[in-house]
Amino acid sequence: MIVDTHCHSWRCGDGFPVRIRTRVAALNADFPFPPAGFAQAGVDKAVLVSAAQSPDETEALFALADANPITVLAVIGFLDPFASDFATRLAAWRRRPVFRGLRLPLVVFDDPAWIETRPALKALDALNDAGLIAEILAEPQHLDAVHRVLTARPNLAAIIDHVANPPARRGPEFDAWREKIALIARDTGAICKFGDLRNGDAAPPADDVAVEIVGHVARRFGNRRLIAGSNWPVAGVDGDPYGAAFLRLRSFARATGLDEPALFADNALRFFGRTT
After folding, report:
1. CA-CA distance, 81 to 19, in Å (whole number)?
2. What is the pTM of this model?
3. Domain 2-271's class?
4. Which 8-state DSSP code applies to residue 115?
5. Strands (E) located in 107-189
6. Pick from 204, 193, 265: nearest CA to 43
């Protein structure tokens, strides 16, 4: 069994501001859910994740979940913490059983400490109070601030998206990522999500670097605090079919001794609130 914890879906002309499809022509196309090859890849369920900084896109993901109640495990949406209707929208979305939390895309904001602004902190506290998930899309330069806000909220359910997008090559920035992600693993209860290990539209790391990334995160977080996602359709930008990211990640998991049932299914079912 596989639970894809990171699947996007969009269509041309939908008006949603998905940044990566403005930069990559191949991604400015229709990507319906479920993707072609979903069942053939051995995937049983998926988490639909916001790709745009728009609550309307989240409403569209709810519609997809309603149309696919067996295969959609959860929806992770987006609300702007600075919006005047943040609390009202969050309260309305909480009434949807499929809604499990919000994505905080730190990478789209100029301030590396955006997550420490007053509205962002209030949003995190609201998620914590509601028992919802904060999915944090960060890069290494954000991790000091992420560490501070998560250590101050030990009961917050948090995901570090894409293992915080480590550099694809070894060097000082790679070493800084290793140190900072280890501190988050040690000092917080966050879990870490593997994808195809590419940072945005950049090429994924070479296999030896990828194995080092997977091994480092596995040692620091342990088998019960790791989940996996396809990052579809971004993972297909080079022509790979849906499911190829899981094959690649499975090879890295085997090379590093990870518990595959936990990584690919059990942890996701537990973390997103459904055990059957």
Report:
1. 19
2. 0.95
3. alpha beta
4. G
5. 133-137, 157-160
6. 265
